[in-house]
């Protein structure tokens, strides 16, 4: 059976930063201790969502199939994806990891690993909270798989209520997939990752004006670029971008215009996330002495000219082989 377009998209996104399993990764009960950080920071290790709070991190929720955690604006809820056989669903938990709700029902009673199950399946990925805390932007499969053999329908952007209600379409294109997205703090703009269908389609950041529905490429972001994140004050847009053989974290003014400013020189870095106070930047990167992603943080500084700089990055985990596609979520 052909690789589905969905699988190809995920492979494209992580192709510059893939890693093998690290035998030194800690067991799920391991407690990590280190820098004191504001708020709550979430990341994923072996399908389990971990939370760094204060000076320590420990497993929070998930049993091996969790991915893509997102903290609500007030920090009281976590949206996350649970993968299953041929489908995925979006769930809500409270800040302590206790279940609250299941927002999608993409499952099917068709036999596991059967073609009927494949044709009946749906996928949802990459939740991003709107500033109102009442909606989430998600990448959703807009229609069932098609063709023979089946290929998953393209992922489109939808606005999903964080409670009862129907999803609203935001963006779809027959020749493109969508992935990670981020709302501007004022809720007027959604930056999202768009990639052409198939293995050769490069990721590119797009800017969706939510009132008009207009979606255009972010002018200053190169291709490939992905993993968008706004600073809490709405002044800056951070993202991962490829520069030759290296992938690092860059920023642009929130308007998306200008020349990108490089914040890291790791060579294998992605998934930026600002602390809620704006004074730290977290990201995932592969160190020279490692084979997988670890969690890093760096202090954020403002220059006299109004620019943004980061201090020396510090590695918070070692050998954990974190899930790069799930990224990092940092909130209150």
UniProtKB/TrEMBL annotation:
InterPro entries: 6-blade_b-propeller_TolB-like (IPR011042), WD40 (IPR011659)
Family statement: Belongs to the TolB family.
Membrane-crossing residue ranges in chain numbering: none
Protein name: Uncharacterized protein
Organism: Candidatus Viridilinea halotolerans
Record PROSITE patterns: PROKAR_LIPOPROTEIN
Pfam families noted in UniProt: PD40 (PF07676)
Keyword vocabulary terms for this entry: Signal
Record's keyword annotation contains Heme: no
UniProt key word Signal: yes
């Amino acid at each position: 059976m052909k690789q589905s377009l969905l699988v190809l998209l995920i492979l494209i996104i992580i192709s510059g930063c893939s890693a093998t399993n690290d035998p030194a990764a800690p067991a799920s009960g391991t407690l990590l201790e280190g820098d004191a950080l504001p708020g709550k920071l979430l990341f994923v290790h072996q399908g389990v969502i971990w939370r760094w709070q204060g000076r320590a991190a420990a497993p929070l929720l998930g049993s091996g199939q969790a991915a893509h955690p997102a903290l609500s604006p007030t920090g009281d809820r976590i949206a996350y994806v649970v993968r299953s056989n041929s489908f995925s669903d979006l769930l809500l938990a409270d800040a302590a990891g206790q279940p609250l709700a299941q927002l999608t029902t993409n499952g099917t009673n068709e036999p596991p690993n059967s073609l009927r199950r494949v044709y009946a399946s749906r996928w949802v990925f990459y939740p991003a909270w709107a500033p109102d805390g009442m909606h989430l932007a998600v990448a959703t499969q807009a229609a069932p798989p098609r063709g023979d053999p089946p290929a998953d329908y393209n992922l489109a952007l939808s606005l999903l209520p964080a409670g009862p209600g129907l999803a609203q379409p935001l963006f779809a294109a027959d020749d493109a997939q969508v992935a990670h997205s981020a709302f501007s703090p004022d809720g007027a703009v959604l930056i999202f990752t768009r990639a052409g269908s198939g293995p050769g389609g490069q990721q590119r950041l797009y800017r969706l004006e939510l009132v008009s529905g207009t979606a255009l490429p972010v002018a200053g972001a190169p291709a490939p670029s992905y993993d968008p994140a706004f600073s809490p004050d709405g002044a800056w847009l951070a993202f991962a971008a490829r520069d030759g053989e290296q992938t690092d974290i860059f920023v642009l003014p929130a308007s998306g215009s200008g020349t990108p400013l490089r914040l890291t020189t790791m060579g294998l870095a992605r998934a930026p996330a600002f602390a809620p106070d704006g004074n730290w930047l977290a990201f995932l990167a592969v160190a020279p002495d490692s084979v997988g992603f670890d969690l890093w943080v760096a202090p954020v500084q403002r220059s006299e000219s109004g620019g943004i700089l980061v201090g020396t990055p510090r590695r918070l985990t070692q050998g954990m082989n974190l899930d790069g596609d799930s990224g990092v979520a940092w909130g209150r």
